[in-house]
Batch of 4 targets.
Target 1
Amino acid sequence: MSRLSKVFKDSAKIAYLTAGDGGEKSIDYFLALAKGGANVLEIGIPFSDPVADGPSIQLAMERALSTGTNIDEVLKLVAGVRARTDAAIIIFTYYNPIFHDLENFLKKIKDAGADGVLVVDLPFEENENLRFLCNKLDLAPIMVASPSTPLERVKLLSENSSGFLYYACRKGTTGVKSDLPEDIPQQIKLVKEHSSLPVAVGFGVSNSDMVKKLLSIADGCVIGSYFVNAIANGKTPHELEIMAKEVFNVIPD
């Protein structure tokens, strides 16, 4: 059974950070999230034009790029994280940094220890080669749906991907929110009825009450900007671990 399959036997607690944000401590921040209860780590490859991301992650990518973080550095980080945790690893990227050498890139992230890849700006109609290569390499190609995605398309996406379906529960870009959309239970019910895969919900998740609610109606939740902001505000890896335990409702040691 794959690491992702094992995670979704219970509930997936997915945490995102941008690779290289935090400089030399970047790997320690990812490991802190795993110690804090995240059983899936979403490792973002920094890109100069992250159109799907809000200000927090845009700034994180700028910080990472300013310190020279590139694909090779990301691969080293992934390997370093994999050596020290059994958490599943998803690579989050835009298509521009990887399209020129896609198969080699996918081979390298697989060898480094990744379990899946999410190419956020590559439409389904243009990702056949990505899906073929991922299936060949036993990597999960993760697809994204949103409130504006027709339910028949939700079905199509889930039937042609693996691991889980990432449901962005709001329109627009990423960023911390104080609560969930009022109709989130209805949204998730419909999506799950049309998805053959587990459904993990993200975009704006930032407190333990939101996590509890999502894990009662979905198969997983995704937290990104909340943790990214902590690094921007100077939190140490240990402080990030405590934050993760609090938001993921993990009983302290």
Target 2
Amino acid sequence: MKNFLGVLFILTLGTVPAWAVLGQYESSVSVDQEFLRSADSVQAFQTYKIHQLTSANGTIIREYVSPKGLVFGVTWQGPFMPSMQQLLGSYVTNLQTASPAQTHIRHLRGLTVKTNDFVFVSGGHMRFWKGNAYVPSLIPNNVSVEVVR
């Protein structure tokens, strides 16, 4: 089990380009768009926005932004795991320091980490990875956590 967790952690620190950072301001999305040379598809809802970026390798990143301009959640899906260091920013330490009680490993399928103010769910298999991470305290009022899935 420890080997699987170690391998999954190494995969999450992969070498995919930078994305907007969880807990940071929306301006980081435009930096990502320029870096990826991709279109930024934006969906605006009454209480949040979703920026969707698609990388050249087919990985889709959705960044959920509150009215305050903060990224409160991110989702990913594609043939490669994005860099969790880039996606989660300072919240990546929650993955590294989560206690066994806060961590659930699904046999060869994925990882769930749930702390007081951070939720991370990721899984998949070779050539198909998906997941999400969010900060409950940053989610706008009247928005369900289910939107970040």
Target 3
Amino acid sequence: MNTFFEVVGATIRIVLIALACLAFFWLIVLKVVSWLGAYLRISPPCPASLGWIVNNPLRRRYMRPVLDRVGIQSGETVLELGPGPGAFSIDAARRLEPQGKLIVVDIQADMIAQVKARVQQAGVANVEMHVANAYALPIEDNSVDRAFLVTVLPEIPDPVRGLHEIYRVLKPGGVFSTTEEFLDPDYPRRKTTIKWARAAGFELTERYGNVWVYTLNFRKRA
């Protein structure tokens, strides 16, 4: 009996040590590497092969309020930059029905392919998809009502340059919304995000959330 409990205790210790090592690697090592990459302006996007990480049931649960914070309204034209595998795309597109349109843009063709598959499976018909760079969006000037990014902005090597492009495509008075979560190795502090957005000409209008997950909404000057 004692041997059984000793084995169980040893197994639990091994599991706890493994989890601690994983947490240290994810929250410390990867963040240091990410900050160094940002300093050197080397910020690669999340690989398409890891799309399941941002589209798992646990994350979908605690990220559920994000689109409410973005404030999507029926009939709008909305840009989602960096949709990844489309974790928010279907819900966003349905909120825009019947006359609105969602434009998704990602630099990775594999990610857009995943979004396309999800859109087709869901039977959503108001999604326009593009493979393009954040610095050259295939969208006309002053044509978008709202743009939102979820854990994407710090993956753009030059965030301010990317925000200038978002500013270009937004209509006067249009809204730019960005959400960040602490578990993301690229996680920027709120004041950093605000600094980037203001440098691109945006005005902060709304703040939501906390250190774990926050959303900031900005407006393009009318």
Target 4
Amino acid sequence: MLIVALTGGIATGKSVVADVWKYLGCYLHNSDKTAHLLMSPGKPAWKEIIRHFGSSILNPDETINRKILGQIVFSDIKERLYLNHLLHPLVLKEKEKIINQLIQEKKYSIFVSEAALTIETGYTDFFDRTVVVFCKPVIQIQRLMEREGINMKAAKRRIESQMPQQEKIKHADYTIDTSTSFSSTIEQAEQVYRYLKMDESLKI
């Protein structure tokens, strides 16, 4: 089984590519969703986060208010690093469990990990291939503003908290540019999928 990292900056179109690959038969693991589960009430990560940030980030049902937490970590690099160092190793452990199970079941030939911070966290060596999704900065800002309902200043702050897109591309085995049309993104995703299938067939 080929282990693939699907990464790129926030709001660059990773989910579109992920959906295409899932449709084509890849196993898709979303690191963001796994992190959210690890932050559920009573979970070890939840307890550590509340201990560190305090109960003011909680909703009435004791779930973590992601909007409040996001405002904190995107405004303070130390707090962002704390949260990343807490969650990323736990998410990686979950990936390893799933991969080992999938290898035993032999149902999938490609495992795809969709995660924005794969390169920043230094986990690229864990994967056989790294695919970076990117787009023009002005499009990235606009997408993020529309998706999160935030202003340009807040959008730029979130984008600047991550590694620059051109730096991410240096780590890529394959790239997908989502700057133009939706159909172009799908076409590129299908082409890279064919490359990955060839890589999987050659993997020893």
